[in-house]
Amino acid sequence: MLALLAWGALAGLLIAAPPAGHAAPVATVLGQAVDTNDPEALRDAILTPLLDQYAAERGLRAEPPEIDAMLARMRRDRAASGPATADDLTPQEQAEVDTMRREMFQALIRQWKINKALYAQYGGRIIYQQLGPEPLDAYREFLRQREADGAFAIRDQALEAAFWRDFTEDSIHDFMPPGSADEARAFTTPPWEQQP
User: Fold this and answer.
1) Residue 160 DSSP SS3
2) Where is this region: Disordered (predicted)?
């Protein structure tokens, strides 16, 4: 689910005021119209600005030493696994790869901090996700609160049902067992400090 947030820039393209004479948008978020019929794009168009606002209000961001630590860990892991294909890159190509990795790690660290803060605020169950632990129940409560506060509204019933499905349908998720070691460490040790 949150892997899709990497496409947050795309979500910005979906938020716009509708032209005069057109139907009302399917949703609004933070006062901006959202016009899409794609449930995943709608989810991103709502989550991205709400989580950006949440992070900004709490000063949640990736710091350069944290990014450096993740890069160092990645390099150690790659060195331990044998020769890398990146050894054939030109210095310019390597610089471009390094920039992309820094941007990726910046986003991952920031998202982990958002998830940790949401979990601390709302609690609940945690699911396994490709990019790290995700406090699913906390997301649902956060979104319900933001919806009640008027931060977003979905006017299309089918899209609304699809939007909430990811946050309410347990059968589509892999939950960390309550009281498990995975659950206990999900938000205690940052990924850039974890040992392999």
Assistant:
1) helix
2) 174-196
Q: How far is Cα 141 from Cα 125, in angstroms, rounded to an integer?
A: 12
- C-alpha 45/C-alpha 30 separation (Å) is 11
Q: Say how far apart CA 133 and CA 178 lie, in whole Å.
A: 13
What's the Cα-to-Cα distance from 42 to each of 65, 110, 125, 129, 174, rounded to whole Å?
34, 22, 24, 20, 23
What is the rounded distance in angstroms from the CA atom of residue 118 to the CA atom of residue 137?
Answer: 9
Per-domain boundaries in the chain? 2-185
Give the amino acid at 180.
S
Half-sphere exposure of residue 164, counting CA atoms within 13 Å on the CB side? 13
Instruction: Supply angle C-alpha 134, 171, 174, rounded to 5.
Output: 40
Angle at CA of residue 24, ends 21 and 27, nearest 5°: 150
- Counts of helices then strands in the chain (DSSP H, E): 7, 3
175, two tokens: 């939950």
How many angstroms separate the CA atoms of 6 and 106, rounded?
11
pLDDT in tens, 70-117: 998 888 888 887 766 556 889 999 889 989 999 999 999 999 999 999
